[in-house]
Specification:
Elements lengths: L1 E7 L1 E2 L10 E6 L2 E5 L5 H8 L7 E3 L11 H10 L6 E5 L5 H8 L5 E5 L5 E3 L3 E7 L7 E7 L8 H6 L6 H7 L4 E3 L2 E3 L13 E4 L7 H6 L5 E5 L7 H6 L5 H11 L3 E5 L1 E2 L6 H8 L5 E3 L5 E3 L8
Length: 301
């Protein structure tokens, strides 16, 4: 099961209804945090997710995206965490002093990343891509490895195979002998199927890099700080409007778009949603504590 939990969905400053940016991806036994705004650990407690994180990925070092990390790491220390925690993020000269200030009682390693880097984490990976935010910033592609193709039991039976260990042998990619014939895996197993792909763009202007990173994604999480009537201001401060995010989703051919990083000026985000849906219908605005499940697709359409 692959779930995405929006812990914080505001931009720049919190509101009564929205905390600062933080997104948790839960997959089997892994819990991966993307950004860690102020108040993240309290949101995790409200959702009863626990705080046993596998990894943390910071999109950039603006305060609203990482100031929840010191408190979260302190709580992990208080609860006697022993496992190492890797915190990934773009270059920042202040990182060594920042982590020294926290003084955790377990190993916390900062791993500097750059666009193009690929972090392999078992059966999935996280790829780093460039964004346009006027600071050393990046986005992340969470992508599962390809899955084996479907096993065609009816075809196997037609070829004289009975249910049992030989099925597993074929699924392991090995051929099997039936009398004087050899059955190859490709005779009974379909083409490989894609894993699920989630793209978190962080803070960014619309860009070709985001389009390429999000190509055919199951889910694109893109900022929509402002509405279209403030497009000039959005450009000046390195952010996107709701309609610009929707254009990115349409160009990239994603399945679903979720807007986040909503400016505190919008007590009601429905104008942003309406604006985006005129361009890309399968759009939603994230509220704090929204949780969605990302299903498998058998193929890329």
């Amino acid at each position: 099961m692959l779930k995405v939990l929006f812990l914080g969905t505001s931009g720049s400053m919190p509101t009564v209804a929205r905390s600062l940016p933080s997104i948790l991806i839960k997959r089997d036994g892994d819990a991966i945090l993307f950004d860690c705004g102020e108040g993240t650990q309290r949101q995790m407690m409200r959702c009863r997710t626990g705080i046993n994180l596998s990894s943390v990925f910071i999109s950039h070092w603006h305060a609203d995206h990482f100031l929840g990390l010191p408190g979260l790491i302190h709580t992990m220390s208080f609860l006697n965490r022993n496992d190492k925690l890797n915190v990934y993020g773009p270059r920042w000269a202040g990182v060594p002093n920042f982590f020294a200030l926290i003084n955790p009682q377990f190993q916390v390693d900062f791993v500097e990343v750059s666009p193009g880097d690929m972090i392999e984490l078992g059966s999935f990976s996280v790829r780093v891509f460039a964004v346009d935010h006027g600071i050393g910033a990046c986005g992340y592609v969470f992508e599962e490895h390809e899955r084996p193709g479907k096993f065609d039991r009816r075809k196997a039976e037609e070829l004289g195979l009975k249910p049992g260990p030989l099925y597993q042998t074929l699924q392991n990619g090995e051929s099997v002998a039936i009398g004087d014939r050899v059955v190859m895996p490709e005779q009974v197993i379909g083409p490989k199927r894609p894993g699920r792909k989630i793209v978190y763009a962080g803070d960014t202007r619309p860009s070709d890099e985001v389009v390429q990173a999000a190509r055919n994604a199951d889910l694109l999480i893109h900022e929509a700080t402002l509405a279209g009537d403030l497009a000039g201001y959005a450009k000046a401060v390195g952010h996107s409007t709701a309609s610009e995010a929707a254009y990115i989703a349409r160009k990239a051919g994603v399945v679903k778009l979720i807007l986040t990083h909503i400016s505190s000026r919008y007590a009601n985000a429905s104008p942003l949603l309406e604006e985006a849906r005129l361009i890309f219908h399968n759009t939603f605005v994230a509220d704090d504590l929204l949780e969605i499940e990302v299903p498998y697709r058998d193929r890329l359409d």
